[in-house]
């Protein structure tokens, strides 16, 4: 500093350095650098010692996220692989792809016990063992558009639709296949007609809250749509509800009401229509309802693409609370949803690239998070304390909803690995304990197998008469004599 001379030049990163921060606390005399090569390095200026911290991410955008709360795991779907993330420490634990060089992954889901992962890759259905990272089942099913777990992860539903052909075809048949986990045994397979219009996205099916029925949108006579209800146990057609053009416009999605199993909502661009799938009639119409529903079925959300956010009462269709006033901000992509506990409303605006979190009870904003890239997937944990974000640059972010009105969140934040200095030692101890248990299990199995083989050999020796010296071949006796010498 006194003379201005250049003392040292460090070959720090492969990519461009985007941030440089000093770290001078106590005896520390360090500098922190971060680069676009996905590494953060801590440099000790006294002896020029570098400590590298790699930031895990995918090379391409994240299409969807599936969570397992019990194991603190997040499953991400990218075009090339299925990523297994540890949500506590933010590490990419594994990349699953049956064909590492040319894999095209479209869907994936993880069971509640975190043992198995179901994925759709390159026209095949795969069932993975998450621990061993091995494929347990593989069967061809091209054009998979949806994978949904059933019966708490004991079975799964795979819906496929053929690719659009160049001919003037207005209707094609989609296939529903239900298989068991982990054997992959096919329980049933059925078909239903869908409209084949270029540019029209696939509309996912929903499962009723009791898990008994599968509700989906299909094609009716002419150009009209119909709602098909299939039995989730045997795949038989239960009901078919035609939709009149005057009642509903082009349906964008279905919502299974979580408080009553016989109610399903069909959402279009202007309103939401609640249908009774048992009586095959319309219960009521809710204007401005754009999706989202609480567990008790009382409230929904209105979030137009031109701006604004309101809480609707679904029984009367009135606006109860206003989270964001109606302001002309232009037409942008909006992602709006409740978290799993219905305590908060998540609102993403692609124009501002911010994720805002509002408290449902008083419509107060508690967070405004600036995204580093466009949001492509978002999920909430079952306890409602965290949200997991996936962006187009391949990064996964786990955010904690630190609500000042909830004192227990302070204890939760204090127990996170990022706040605990001893978390590395605890993790290593836990891994050592797990490895010891695995080794003990293997030793126990090998001992049982060895004992069973010894018993079989003993039984075989009882039935075989010992050979006398005269019956013993000459070569064997010579070999015995050589061994004695």
Automatic annotation (TrEMBL):
It holds the Pfam family Beta-prop_NWD2_C. It comes from the Eukaryota. Residues 52-401 form the NWD2 C-terminal beta-propeller domain. Residues 447-485 are annotated as: Disordered. Coiled coil: none annotated. Residues 457-485 have a biased composition (Acidic residues). InterPro entries: Beta-prop_NWD2_C, NACHT-WD_repeat, Quinoprotein_ADH-like_sf, WD40/YVTN_repeat-like_dom_sf, WD40_rpt. This is NWD2 C-terminal beta-propeller domain-containing protein. It comes from Cryptotermes secundus.
């Amino acid at each position: 500093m006194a003379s201005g001379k250049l003392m040292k030049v460090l070959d720090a990163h492969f990519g461009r350095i985007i941030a440089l921060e000093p770290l001078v606390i106590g005896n520390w005399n360090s500098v922190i650098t971060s680069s676009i090569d996905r590494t953060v390095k801590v440099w000790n200026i006294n002896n020029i010692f570098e400590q590298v911290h790699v930031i895990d991410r995918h090379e391409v955008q994240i299409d969807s996220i599936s969570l397992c709360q019990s194991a603190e795991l997040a499953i991400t779907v990218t075009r090339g692989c299925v990523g297994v993330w540890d949500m506590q420490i933010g590490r990419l634990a594994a990349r699953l792809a049956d064909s590492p060089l040319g894999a095209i992954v479209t869907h994936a889901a993880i069971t509640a016990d975190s043992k198995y992962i179901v994925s759709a890759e390159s026209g095949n259905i795969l069932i993975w063992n998450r621990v061993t990272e091995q494929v347990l089942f593989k069967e061809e099913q091209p054009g998979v558009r949806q994978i949904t777990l059933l019966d708490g992860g004991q079975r799964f539903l795979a819906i496929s639709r053929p690719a659009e052909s160049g001919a003037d075809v207005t209707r094609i048949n989609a296939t529903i296949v239900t298989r068991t986990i982990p054997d992959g045994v096919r329980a049933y397979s059925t078909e239903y007609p869908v409209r084949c219009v270029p540019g029209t996205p696939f509309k996912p099916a929903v499962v009723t809250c009791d898990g008994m029925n599968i509700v989906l949108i299909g094609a009716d006579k002419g150009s009209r749509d119909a709602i098909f209800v299939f039995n989730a146990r045997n795949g038989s057609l239960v009901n078919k509800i035609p939709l009149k053009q005057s009642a509903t416009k082009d349906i964008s999605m279905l919502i299974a009401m979580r408080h009553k199993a016989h109610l399903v909502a069909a959402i279009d661009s202007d309103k939401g229509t609640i249908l009774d799938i048992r009586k095959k009639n319309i219960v009521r119409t809710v204007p401005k309802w754009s999706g989202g529903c609480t567990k008790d079925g009382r409230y929904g959300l209105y979030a137009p693409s031109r701006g604004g956010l309101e809480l609707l009462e679904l029984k009367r269709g009135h606006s109860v609370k206003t989270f964001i006033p109606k302001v002309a901000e232009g037409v942008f992509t909006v992602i709006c949803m409740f978290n799993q506990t219905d305590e908060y409303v998540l609102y993403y605006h692609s124009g501002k690239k911010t994720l805002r979190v509002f408290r449902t009870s008083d419509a107060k904003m508690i967070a405004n998070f600036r995204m580093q890239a466009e949001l492509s997937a978002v999920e909430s944990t079952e306890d409602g304390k965290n949200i997991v974000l996936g962006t187009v640059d391949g990064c996964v972010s786990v955010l904690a909803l630190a609500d000042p009105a909830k004192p227990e969140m302070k204890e939760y934040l204090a127990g996170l690995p990022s706040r605990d200095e001893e978390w590395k030692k605890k993790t290593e101890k836990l891994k050592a304990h797990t490895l010891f248990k695995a080794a003990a299990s293997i030793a126990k199995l090998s001992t049982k197998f060895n004992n069973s083989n010894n018993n079989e050999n003993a039984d075989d020796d009882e039935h075989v008469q010992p050979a006398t010296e005269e019956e013993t071949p000459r070569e064997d006796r010579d070999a015995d004599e050589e061994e004695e010498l």
